[in-house]
Amino acid sequence: MPYIQDQFESDQIVSILVRSTSDVTTAPYDYHHRQIIRICSIASSSVSILCGIIAFYCLGMIHPKRRIFRYDLIFLLIVYDFIKGLALLI
Q1: pLDDT tens by residue, 19-72
Q2: Which of 14, 40, 50, 57 has its CA at 20 to 30 Å from residue 77's CA atom?
Q3: Are 85 and 49 a contacting pair, CB within 8 Å?
Q4: CA–CA distance, 60 with 9 (Å, rounded to integer)
Q5: CA distance 63 to 82
Q6: What is the pLDDT of residue 18?
Q7: C-alpha of 46 from chain center
Q8: CA 74 – CA 48 distance, rounded (Å)
Q9: Looking at residue 62, what DSSP letter applies?
């Protein structure tokens, strides 16, 4: 008899997992959840833009004779992150 009880419990667990997964994937977000996601994306892109501006300033303060190729690569990474932050904000 323990096998039947274990089989019944495992079937219940599987049905609960399948039902909860399908509910999550098919149910649209309500207004409150969309608003939270929107606020989080605006905040993260704003922080990214602010950090990009600070990094532009710091890289701009390096004397041109001391600038090496590595700083140019870092500058390109910051530019692309800055563009990504602007795209997410818009």
Answers
A1: 555 555 556 778 888 899 899 999 999 999 999 999 999 988 988 888 888 888
A2: 40
A3: yes
A4: 65
A5: 23
A6: 60
A7: 13
A8: 15
A9: S
- Rounded Cα distance, 47 and 50, in Å: 5
**Residue pair 82/46 in contact by the 8 Å Cβ criterion:** no
Q: At what angle do helices 69-89 and 31-60 cross, to 10 degrees?
A: 150
CA dihedral 20, 23, 24, 29 (to 10 degrees): -150
Who's near 45: CB < 8 A, 6+ residues apart?
84, 85, 86, 88, 89
Half-sphere exposure in the Cβ direction for 46 (13 Å, CA): 6
